[in-house]
Design a protein that fits this description.
The structure is a single chain. By secondary structure, the protein is mostly beta strands. It is built from five helices and 42 strands. The longest helix has 16 residues. The radius of gyration is 26 Å and the shape is globular.
């Protein structure tokens, strides 16, 4: 014990005596030579500050190393500078920023080198949660469908699964708090289980990301960035509430955060409750009601030698399962059948800083407890407990000139356990391990990035039910391996014109449902038979994007071709069991292709005016020319938006009108129904006012303002002819200190 105390004292003295680098300077406008109110941020350290009224700034307690420092301000072009810190040094960086009508760039976190989007080899879509809420989104999943190339498979308003360029479920991986989210995402009625409160922004990688994230990132990644800690020396709190007229729903959340020079803390809690949604003027969808409780907390410690961040999220979702149009009521009390889902996420992220390199170590523990009540509200007919431990270790090698390299080790240990009367999938253990290496090379006019990875996934399941019964599920012991690689380039072709070309491979090991199912899948009216002989899905995708931007307008065109070998799909047979049609899991090669195209008009000097338009299309086919199921219909989205800011009392005001046209979807699989096109109109206005130290933000928006009666092609209610949600007027108020 005495030796341990001595060691702790030595470590404390060493830490206190270690170098304390600083960054200081002044930021001014290049055209007017006036002070600029700007943010100075170091992504790798999650450390930043803002300039004072004279444009001066200071950042202390910076570890030795070579870091990207981001300078950003609304109305100015963001600047990224690589700055080296060493030996108790004070670096002075005076900067002149150029005015720009382009919206302020943010750092992309989901890709490995934490670059601004303009410097990133891989095109990543990023949107703030505040913008999603302003558009009238009921849930986080509901908001992300506004991102070009992203759609949503829905079960009413309470359950949504992201679709990226036609791929969904286990082909799209979700990350929260820096760790992969595992919550039985293979199921049709399994949503994200993440509340938007405490989520600062959403990033979407559209295409194979297996190089960075392993199995299940074959179609893309949904990366949820958690709320940032407060700037050192500041304390903030806020309370907000939103009312949704269609569901008579309310969503309220409260947060507080405070930061010292080294220690930071935040906490946020929220509660949402909704009644059955109304479909146009027709009827309410019985038992589509749901409610949600969410708690998030985090603590961070930053010193000159290491950074540690501990975060925890608890989410309880109670979701009604709508089966038919029944009693018309405004009640928010759930009826049978319903789901009760607990989701726990504990993440621990550490970075050790060396003189010219760093080591990132992340660990996460997730526990998902899913209960489904069918006849007795006190006894779960189906109960699945999923425990997951995952880890991610990456070493950032010392830079060699313009070359940055990362090597890493990732893995997962997972246990699935049944405790209900019904068995959907058997008890099982899954073990993952992956090795990766990726490099980024920066030249004046071109950035190159390449990488390679090896993965192994082992699935061991127990036998389920009586061996003499027809629905017996035998034990399984299989291992799936894969090599993946990626190569990309971002090029400045001409002035204001840039291009990106990316080639990437991905893979997905079949999930437990596909391998072992043998029974009726409730809610789908199918008897599903798994196939233990299924192999990896392997894909190769080519992405090409072109961008043009000047002070008046931006144009973009993104195209992709995705070839998927051994695509797993479910297919009807001629067999019937218990008066239920039998479906088998099969494999065949498939291809998906399409893209997103659009422009953004922001005429200078009318920088407050914005006109945005985007078109997205995707086609998915098997090698026999049959269409794939659950492919989003083509859509065209037009938004007119105005933004006003920089008043003494009124800090910011904005208004928008959006018309979204969704076209007929006639390209359907053999057991899908076609859907007709429709147009949805939405609009909103918001304004922020500063009174003393209190900021008030008032917003009002409306979705489906014409009360259009329609059925989305990706709605699970489509086979029953149940309509999507009608008009909703939403009013929100936020108070921040």
């Amino acid at each position: 014990m005495k030796n341990l105390l001595c060691l702790l004292v030595v470590c404390f003295i060493y830490t206190a005596a270690s170098s304390q680098n600083s960054l200081t300077g002044t930021i001014t406008s290049k055209n007017k030579n006036e002070a600029v109110m700007a943010t100075v941020y170091i992504p790798q350290l999650e450390k930043g500050t803002v300039t004072d009224f004279d444009g001066n700034y200071t950042l202390n307690t910076i570890p030795n190393g070579n870091y990207n420092v981001i300078f950003s301000s609304l109305g100015y072009a963001s600047v990224s500078k690589k700055i080296n810190f060493s030996n108790n040094q004070t670096v002075t960086e005076n900067l002149q920023m150029e005015e720009s009508a382009v919206e302020m760039e943010e750092v992309i976190v989901s890709t490995p080198f934490h670059k601004l989007q303009s410097n990133n080899v891989m095109k990543v879509e990023r949107v703030s949660t505040a913008d999603l809420n302003s558009s009238g989104a009921v849930t986080l999943a509901d908001g992300i469908k506004n991102i070009a190339g992203v759609d949503l498979i829905t079960t009413g308003t309470g359950i949504g699964k992201p679709v990226i360029r036609g791929l969904s479920s286990n082909r799209v991986l979700t990350y929260a708090q820096g760790v992969r989210l595992e919550n039985q995402q293979f199921g049709d009625e399994h949503g994200l289980g993440i509340n938007e409160s405490g989520v600062e922004s959403v990033e979407v990688i559209k295409g194979p990301a297996s190089l960075l994230y392993g199995s299940d990132a074959l179609g893309g990644v949904l990366y949820l960035n958690p709320e940032k800690f407060a700037i050192s020396g500041e304390t903030h709190s806020d309370l907000s509430s939103t009312y949704f007229s269609n569901t008579l729903g309310t969503s309220t959340n409260f947060g507080v955060k405070t930061s010292g020079e080294k220690l930071k803390f935040l906490a946020r809690g929220s509660y949402s409750s909704f009644s059955d949604y109304k479909a146009g003027t027709a009827y309410r969808i019985t038992n589509s009601r749901f409610n949600e409780k969410d708690l998030k907390a985090g603590v961070q410690y930053l010193d000159t030698k290491f950074k540690s961040t501990l975060r925890y999220n608890y989410n309880r979702s109670n979701i009604g399962i709508a089966e038919e149009i029944g009693e018309q009521t405004h009640s928010k009390d759930l009826e049978i059948p319903f789901q009760e889902i607990d989701n726990h996420i504990l993440s621990f992220e550490n970075t050790l800083f060396f003189n010219k390199s760093s080591l990132d170590v992340k660990a996460g523990y997730l526990f998902n407890d899913r209960r489904e009540f069918e006849d007795d509200p006190s006894l779960a007919a189906l109960r699945l407990k999923l425990s997951t431990f995952n880890y991610d270790v990456k070493y950032n090698l010392p830079e060699l000139g313009k070359l940055e390299t990362i090597v890493g080790l990732q893995g997962m240990f997972q246990n699935n356990k049944n405790e209900g009367e019904e068995i959907l999938i058997p008890n099982a253990n899954t073990t993952d391990i992956g090795l990766l290496a990726t490099s980024h090379y920066h030249l004046e006019k071109i950035d190159l990035q390449a990488g390679i990875r090896f993965d192994s996934r082992k699935i061991e399941s127990e036998a389920a039910r009586n061996p003499l019964d027809a629905d017996f599920i035998p034990a399984l012991n299989k291992t799936f391996t894969s090599f993946t690689a990626a190569l990309g380039a971002k090029m400045d072709l001409f002035e204001n014109v840039s291009a990106r070309v990316n080639f990437a491979s991905g893979f997905r090991a079949p999930n437990l449902a596909e391998l072992t199912s043998n029974g009726v899948h409730e809610g789908t009216n199918r008897y599903e038979k798994g196939n233990a002989e299924l192999t990896n899905e392997q894909n190769f995708q080519t992405d090409v994007s072109l961008e043009y931007r000047n002070e008046h307008v931006e144009f973009f065109a993104n195209g992709f071709y995705n070839a998927v070998n051994d695509y797993i799909f479910i297919s009807p047979t001629d067999e019937m069991i218990e008066d239920t049609p039998v479906y088998d899991y099969l494999q065949n090669n498939a291809s998906l292709y399409g893209g997103e195209f659009g422009f953004h008009l922001h005429p200078h000097p009318l920088d407050w005016l914005h006109l945005e338009s985007s078109f997205e299309t995707v086609v998915g086919k098997l090698s026999n020319d049959d269409y794939l199921p659950l492919i989003p219909a083509n859509s065209l989205r037009n938004t007119f938006r105005v933004e006003l800011q920089d008043g003494k009392t009124r800090k910011f005001s904005a208004a928008f009108v959006t018309l979204e046209n969704t076209f007929n979807q006639k390209n359907v699989s053999t057991f899908e129904t076609r859907t007709g096109g429709y147009s949805l109109l939405s609009a909103g206005i918001e304004s922020s006012f500063q009174l003393q130290k209190v900021l008030f933000k008032l917003s009002i928006n409306g979705t489906n303002l014409t009360d259009k009666e329609y059925i989305s092609h990706l709605s699970r209610f489509k086979p029953d002819g149940i309509l999507n949600i009608g008009r909703s007027i939403n009013v929100g108020l936020k108070v921040a200190l």
